[in-house]
Design a protein that fits this description.
60% of the residues lie in helices and 7% in strands. By secondary structure, it is mostly helical. A three-stranded antiparallel beta sheet has the order 1-3-2. The protein has a domain of 118 residues: Arc Repressor Mutant, subunit A (Orthogonal Bundle). α1 packs across α2, α2 crosses α4 and α3 crosses α4.
Length: 172
Amino acid sequence: MSPAPAEPSPSAAERRKYPVPPDVLERFGELGRENSTLAVLRHARIAEQMGLSGTDHKALDLVSRAEGPLTAGRIAQLTGLSTGAVTGVIDRLERGGFVRRVRDREDRRKVLVEIVPMDMERYAPLFESALVAVEEVLEGFSPEERDAIERYETEIIARMRAEILGDNHNTP
């Protein structure tokens, strides 16, 4: 059974602000860079084991988290890739059996990209070590500390999403 969802936190503007000393900002910056680099390397390794490039893997991730099929144009917006590059990504994902092109039911001129149902058990082992690490680390934090970590991560993701994708949505 999953835990009850956390209470919505006040917006950043509503919370009290605490000055951040330069050394603390520098430490968090270094931690963020190291985490980012290792995440890219982990996902490059996972992509390779799935027979994909890193770009194709992340495009597949974005499409899989969308609420439904996406147009190639929307995938281009989400990834920051050109529409020509996205066509190549979709071609490779389609050849790999990860996605398929389908006609939009409302506008038959429009082509959508949808995820092909996958055998998740086949790919679960690729992510297992990351899930185990997260669980083991979180076991060392109290529920209140976890709430603070989750709030930090959520706010960082929201700001990155707004900067990179130009929106404030939580999903593609």
